Amino acid sequence: MTLPLDQDPRPPYVQAADVLRAAIRDGELRPGERLPSARELQRRFGIASSTVQNALRLLKEEGLIYSVLGRGSYVRAHDGEPEPEEEEAAASESDPAYVGLGDLRRGWQVAPTDDPRPPYVQTADALRKQIQDGRLAPGAKLPSARELQEQFGIANSTAQNALRLLKDEGLIYSVQGRGVFVRQLSPHDQFLKRYHEMLDKSAAQRRADEEAVRLSGKTDDEVAAELEAAEERFAKASVEFEAATAHRDAMRAVMEQRKRLSGNYTPEEKAAKAQLLRDRLTEGRRRR
Question: Whole-angstrom Cα distance, residue 172 to residue 58?
Answer without folding.
Answer: 43
